[in-house]
Amino acid sequence: MTSREERIMPEYLIAFNDEWVPDHTPQEVQQKSEASMVVVEEMRNEGVFVFGNGGIDASSVVCSVEAKEGEPVFTDGPYVETKEHLGGFCVVRVPDDAAARYWAGRLAVALDWPQEVHRFPGRPPQAADLDRD
């Protein structure tokens, strides 16, 4: 894949919600982690992996911020009430929806819990992108 192709391929977020994941023993969590890392390593080898994370620490919110009179106001709360928390996620750069679905399917099978696929809004290739190759 050329750097030009990488720049114009869409990126996709593959993610799961913590609410979708049943309780697991520590050993089960370790097994799921190892299985998902095999898929992530395959993504890296294929050159489609952009970024990933095993999730966020839902027990500690750093802060809440909102705009007031054109200025950011940071507080320790109150927070938007929600039961849903972003679990693990990764970003892949692949040619199309089918390829993103393939990798999401691989993760869904490895982890045995649902995944969502979201395409980031793309940008059309710029003349400068095409000239750099």
Average pLDDT for all residues: 79
Using the alpha-carbon principal axes, give the shape. Answer: flat
CATH class assignment: Alpha Beta
Q: How many strand segments?
A: 6
Summed up, the helix count is 4
H/E order of the elements? HEHEEEEHEH
The largest sheet is:
4 strands, antiparallel
Low-confidence stretches: 125-133
Rg, alpha carbons = 18 Å
The total domain count is 1
Query: How much of the residues is beta strand, in percent?
Result: 25-35%
CATH architecture: 2-Layer Sandwich
Helix content: 25-40%
- Given the helix and strand composition, which structural class is it? alpha+beta
- CATH structural fold name: Alpha-Beta Plaits
Distance between the termini: 12 Å
Strand order of the biggest β-sheet: 2-5-1-6
Question: At the fourth CATH level, what is the homologous superfamily?
Answer: Dimeric alpha+beta barrel
